[in-house]
Structure formats: C-alpha cells, structure tokens
Amino acid sequence: MKKIFALPIFLGELSLGVLKSTGQWGVFSLSALANAVYLRTLWQKILYNIYFIGFKSLNIIVLVAFFTGMVLGLQGHYTLIKFSAEGMLGVAVALSLVRELGPVLTAIMLIGRAGSSISAEIGIMRISEQIDALETMNINPIRYLVTPKVIAGFICFPLLTAIFDCVGILGGYFASTLLSSRSGIFFSKVQSSLMVEDVTGGFIKSFVFAFIVMTISCYCGYYTHQNRDSAGAQGVSNSTTSAVVQSCVYVLIADYIITSFLM
Amino acid sequence: MHEPLIQIQNLTKAFGDRVILDQASLDIHRHKITAIIGKSGVGKSVLVKHIIGLIQPDSGDIIFDGKAYSQITAREFSAIKDRCSYMFQHNALFDSLTVFENIALPLREKYRLPKKEIIGRVQTRIEQLELDEVAHLYPKNISGGMQKRVALARALITNPEIIFFDEPTTGLDPIRKKTVFSMIHRYHEKFNFTAVIITHDIPDIFYIAHTVNIIDHGKIIFSGSPVALDQSDNPELFVYTHGHEMLVDDLTKLLNRIALRQKITTWSTEKSTPMHMVSVEMKGLRKLVDFKGHLLGHVFIKNFAKFLQDKLSADVCAGLFSQEVLVLVARNQDKEWITTTQEQLTDFFTTPGIQQFCQANHLCVQIRGLVGSANTDPLLALKQRLTSRQCV
Q1: Going by fewer Cβ within 10 Å, which terminus of chain A is more open, N or C?
Q2: Helix, strand, or coil here: B15?
Q3: CATH entry 3.40.50.300 includes domain B6-236
Q4: Which among B93, B110, B112 has CB closest to A137?
C-alpha cells in the first residue's frame, strides 16, 4: 500500500519544497531590493562589490569575449562564404554578440567567477555564526551582505556586457582580417545593421541576469543551514554548486523568455 | 526581590521529533549574573537564543521588561535587541575583518558615530582587554584566548544593558578560564550590566553567579543561589555541584555523600534485615589536604578504599560520610559483623606503613560501631556517635 502512494507523496513533497523555496527566494530578493533605500549608507560596500564583481572579472571577460568573437568570425565566414555573403560577417558577429551571446556569456562567466564565491562567502558566514552575530547586533544581515552585492550586480553586469560586446566584435574583426582581404566592410556593415533596440534588448537581459545571478547566489549561501542532506563545509560546497547550477539554468530560461518578448 | 528583567514562561521548542525545551521557565534579574548550567546538548544555548530572537519558540512566551514577545511589534523587538549583546560560544568573529574592525563593527553599522569617536571607544576597549598588539591582525592569526577577548570587547563596545555569554570559556586553558570569569566579574562590577552565562565550568561559575539555573531534559530543574545549590541534598543536583569529585569516587569505588546517605536511609527502612554501621573518623585528614595537598589525601583514601574492596558486596557498602569520616554499612544477620570489621580495620591502621604515615601526618583514627534501629534516624545516630573520642 505504501508503495502505491510513494510516488504521489514524493511529488507532493517535491512541489511543496519548490514552492517554499521559491517563496523564500522571492521574499529574500524583495527584501534585498527594498533595502536599497539605504543606498547612502551602503555606498562603500557597493564600491567594494563593484571592484570584486566587476573589476576583478574584467580580464576573464575580455579574454572570453575576444575568443568568442574570433570563433564567431571563423564560423560565420565558413557559413557565409557558401552563399558568397562574407561581407555580412560583421552583421552576423555583432548581432549574435549584442542580442544574445554578450549578455548570456557575461552572465555565465560572472556566475563562475563571482556568483560561486559570493555563495561560498555567505555560506561560511552562516555556518560560522557570523550572520547570527549580525542579527544579535541588530544589524540587518540582508542589508549588510546582500543588498550591496545586488546593486553592484546591477551596475557591473551591463557594463561588462558592453565590454564583452565591444571586445567580441573586435575579435570577430580580427578573425575576418585573417581570413579575408575585404575586412574593411566589417565595421561599415556593423554600423549600418546594428539598431538601438538590439543594444537595449541586450542591456535588459543583462539587468535581469544580474538580478537572477546575485539573488540566487546570495540566497543559496544565506540559507546554507537549511540544507537537508549536508551540513558544515559540505553544506557550503553544496550551496555553491547549487548556486552555480540554478543561476545558469534560470539565466537560460530567462534568456528565452526575454528574447521571445523582444522579437 | 524586584520584578525580573526577563521572564521565560513555559518555553517549548522541538527540532523535528527531538524536544529540546519542554515548558522551560526561568527568571533573569536586573544587574545580576545568572548562570545556566547543564549537560551538553540539553538546550542551554537554544534557551538563550530565544531571548535574542535567533530562534522562535513552538509555544510559550518571553516577557522582557514587562513586554511579552508575543505582543510586541518588530520595532519594539528591535529596541530590545539594541539593549542586548551576545558573545558566541565560538566567538563568531568576522574573519575578513581585523580585530579593530571587528570591535568597531557595531558602532559603525548601528550608531553612525563620528570616525574619531569610534576610534577612541574601540581603542579604550582594546587597551582594557590588552589587545593592543593584535589590533591590526585578523582573527585567524591570534590565539583562542585572544579571540575570546576580542569577542568580549565586541560585546562590551556598545555598553549594553544585558550581555549573554554562551560558554565564554570553552576551549580555554584553566588559567585563561579563570581570567575570563574574573574579567566578566570585574566588568559586571564596573558597568553593572545584567549577565547571563551559559557554562560547564563548575564550580568556578558559582563564585561569580548570583543565581544558578540547571537545565535538564528540557526543563529548569533548579533555580536559586549557588549556596542553596551547594547545600542541596537532591541527588539529581549532586552531579552538578560535586561533579569534580565523581572521578575520585569512580577511582576509589566509594559511594559519594548523597549516595551513602540514601543507602543508609533505604536500608534502615527495610526492617526485615538489621543494619550495622562502622564509622572510621580520620581526624586531621582535612589539614593534610590543606597543608600537604589534595593528591596526598587522595592517595591515602585510595589505599584505604583498596583495602575495603574485599569487604564490599551487595549487602555491604562504604562511602565518605563527610570529608574526614568514612562509613561502612552492612545489611545482614551477622551479629559479629561490627566487631569483626572493627578488628580488621584496626589491623589495617596498625600495620607499620600506615601507622607511620598517620603519625607523620598527625592523623588520628577513630573506629566506631553502631547497630541500626528502626526507632531512630540512623543518620542522626551516626552523627551522635561520632562525637566521642577514642583512637586506635
């Protein structure tokens, strides 16, 4: 008899768990955003987080963007040459980067570099009672730890996306100069085909991704102690993994939804 | 006594199926040091974390300065938290901040004081707690004792009205433990705050606490002054008051004071079998302990207990009635038992080595026999018989 109900019970518990954590994440995220009204007192922490999330990620973003642009250039050239349309390479590279790859790859790089470390940092603070200590001092832990990171994310993600786009286009151009003597046409086509809406769409995505990545990374660390399967260092490890996986998944889901609205 | 500052009323908390607090009630008085003691994992920290709002109870209430937690607003609770400070068992120092920054954190984040004033106040605490040399270091680079002092400095920096100390001496050596307790006592006298100390350090805590609360099985089983606790004959409390003596009892296999008295009382009520007692009063043993050390006294008792091991059985037991009196109790029909035992004990104390030891240390041994009677209190009779003088 127990076996008959095992599956419905499992599905029920799973659904309740998902609903509970989604609600908790919603409240957590809203609380983080609501605390942004204390911007005046948080600016030092925001600056530090801009340095940590933004500036320290700059080199890896530039590197990845350049090679992504080059690969796009190579693949684009290979495809377009079949239709004798290699002159359109600039358009293909620029639109791919600005509308899609720029925001998504920037978000994924930042998940790996900043999101994981934010989750681990907050998780360790949770298990070593540092967050409890903040509460006993009557210091709002979300305001102290999460809000500056979310605001810094809102600033860094679009900026890094813009840098990714520019460097990626340069990478595409570099690839095109290696492959074709008609590389001069590359930038003229980029300029003529790239619309403001394309850039705006990319920035909208980067804002949404910033919110998703920062809140999920902070949330996973903040509630490390609620991990049922693990505790202590292993709990932090699981939270970090969970933060990276969930952020990636939700970024890609959000990317599809936003793209479908912007099309 | 004035109305308590904090009243914990019938607090119940369970984690899953495990009930940690079961209708626990406790009063914390203003400007007093309240100690909460108990075995590991009985819920001492859980109890205190309810007061500061880190844990929410399943049922019950806390009344803080006349205001019930169940009826106050978030703003009022925030005001209560501003009056409190909490020193964590494992310090909970911010590992990415230096010692100075850790101590300054509550001032920087809560009060927004001018930088100069923050530096001045932190510097004062650093000097008071002798942390000058480590102020620029990170917590991981300083010793456990210093980390405790940093945590104490952070707890004191806002001049709180109430400080909760969660096992402040855990992991410290005996010398540092005493230093921490004397530090709490000194600062309590100086700042007159209300202190709640969770600790395992018995009997050290009895010297500084005004009230001691013992928690066991989720309930407060004792609440009163350290003197009342020390004088209590409740066997459940003996482990807390004389826990340090239990190792000695285990080593000598002798019954402790409470257990011996209980045994005498129990056997005396069983009228079917008569009870006999032989007391061995070792006058001068206390002085021996005082002047020549606790260990020498222990060695003497241990050797005596070793000699007694052959005589003990299910119907014969022995234990320390007081610091200088050992009593052998038998429950049998053997009318000669007292005489035989007295002779055996006399033989033991007249062996050359023991006699020499007793003479050298001015020990005077009296051996007395007593037959238990159903009409008299055996403990009272024993006390009366111990007054006469007769040395072997």
Answers
A1: N
A2: strand
A3: yes
A4: B110
